[in-house]
Amino acid sequence: MTAVATEKLIAPHGGELVDRTGARPDDLEALETVTLTSREMSDLDMLASGALSPLEGFMGRTDYESVVDDMRLANGLPWALPVCLAVEAAPSGERVALAGPSGRKMAVLEVDDVYQYDRPREAERCFRTTDAAHPGVARLYAQNPLYLSGRVSVFERAEPSFPALARDPAETRAEFAGRGWKRVVGFQTRNPIHRAHEYLTKCALEMVDGLLIHPLVGETKSDDVPAETRVECYDVLVEKYYPSDRVLVSAFPAAMRYAGPREAIWHAICRKNYGCSHFIVGRDHAGVGDYYGTYDAQQIFDEFEPHELDIEPMFFEHAFYCRACGQMATPKTCPHGGEDHMFLSGTKVRELLAAGQLPPIEFSRPEVAEVLVSAYRR
Ligand SMILES: [Zn+2]
Fold first, then answer.
1. CA 112, CA 116: separation in Å to the nearest integer?
2. Most-buried pick from 136, 303, 306, 327 (CB within 10 A)?
3. How far is the CA of 324 from the centre of ligand 1 (A)?
4. 242 Cα to the center of ligand 1, angstroms
5. What is the full DSSP assignment across 176-212?
6. Is 232 helix (H, G, I), strand (E, B) or coil?
């Protein structure tokens, strides 16, 4: 890729885009190996690419404590969730090799510290619950008992699940700059996009230069729609219903934490690193079950001064098709009652799809519904 001036874009979090890729060390075979979980692998790859700038490695104790207590790194910079590596025991050497779940070595970590952490406290502060039925809390409770911190250097990047959609922050930034975009809105999603979310993204796009549809393709709960099917849905939707010169679809390699409000902040900061100046926050962003209030993920942004995050959140209500308005709308813009609104529950939609029936066009674009119906038949 030729170098494109990206200085008109929002600066990365902390000012500089971190690059923690590096050469394979000669003494790799002599190093003790730590095997990462799938969530830790996602974090490692995002450390390598600068998606987690300004982090250069897994968090040390002072950053960790400060993030858990105060949603800030020790230097005061906003940061909402721990990025930590859990280990069984302290390693003996000054450096360790980091391997993926398959055992393949990908990175080296310069050991900075090994420390104990308090699982229920992290759960209560970060997930707002200590209930082990919460998927993020369950994962936390099942982790190894110590955190290992230190700078990483990644010599082999994880195989992207969707090579055609794999773009590092430096690449999305170059793409935005190449298209002449300055103001870019990011849209986080882990579901197929139906009319409601199409409407939100287009409302946002009316006000900025470009839209980054940034589906999360890391690990999710097993009942979320598989990433492969979702990506097919985004492709047909964008091809038929969006202006291609104003939209970029790219994969966001993070794993879901289901931390609701804090994850909304974390998602926004990551998208800032990818070059987004704006970020869509809907109702119950990154929530699960009924652990979070409808607007918690929007209200948490008020805990920071606007200049601290820099990236501008755009808050949205749930959208629907209103027969009386004759268009998509939200409770903010439509005065009519529920009887005029096209509403289908997630359960109802799954029933229709499983029966091979397409949901109404006011709910879902037929091309998207067809992808979902055929995915159900597989
Ligand atoms: Zn209406």
1. 14
2. 136
3. 5
4. 24
5. HHHTT-SSEEEEEESS---HHHHHHHHHHHTTSSEEE
6. helix
Q: Which two tokens stand for residue 60?
A: 């040390």
Greater confidence (274 vs 346) lies with 274
How far away, in angstroms, is 323 Cα from ligand 1 center?
6
Å from CA of 342 to ligand 1 middle: 10
d(CA 266, CA 191): 19
Q: Which two tokens stand for residue 333?
A: 């813009």
From the CB of residue 310, how many other CB atoms can be counted at a distance below 10 Å? 16
- Cα 144 to Cα 101, 140, 194, distances in angstroms: 15, 9, 39
Query: Given phi > 0 = left and psi -120 to 50 = alpha, else beta, which region is 105?
Result: beta
What is the distance in A from the centroid of ligand 1 to the CA of 337?
A: 7
pLDDT score for 378 = 75
Question: Residue 4: is its pLDDT beyond 80?
Answer: no
Q: Where do the H-state alpha helices sit in 274-365? A: 296-299, 306-309, 346-354
In eight-state DSSP terms, residue 341 is: E
For residue 326, report the distance from its CA to the centre of ligand 1, in Å. Answer: 7
Mean pLDDT, range 339-348, rounded to an integer? 87
Helix (H) or strand (E) holding 86: strand 85-87
Which single residue is written with the structure tokens 């050469």?
23
Distance from the CA of 195 to the center of ligand 1, in angstroms?
15
* Contacts with 159 (C-beta within 8 Å, 6 or more apart), sequence order: none
pLDDT score at 262: 97
According to the 3-state scheme, what is the secondary structure of 281-305? ECCCCCCCCCCCCCCHHHHHHHHCC
Tens-digit pLDDT profile for residues 61-73: 999 999 999 999 9
**Active site (catalytic) residues:** 190-191
Kindly give, in sequence order, each residue whose CB lies less than 8 Å from that of residue 269, ignoring residues fewer than 6 positions away.
13, 78, 79, 80, 309, 311
3-state helix, strand, coil in the chain (%, to 5): 35, 20, 45
CA dist 258 and 287 (Å) reads: 5
- CB burial of residue 223 (10 Å; 0-12, 13-18, 19+): exposed
Q: Is the peptide bond before 25 cis (omega within 30 degrees of 0)?
A: no
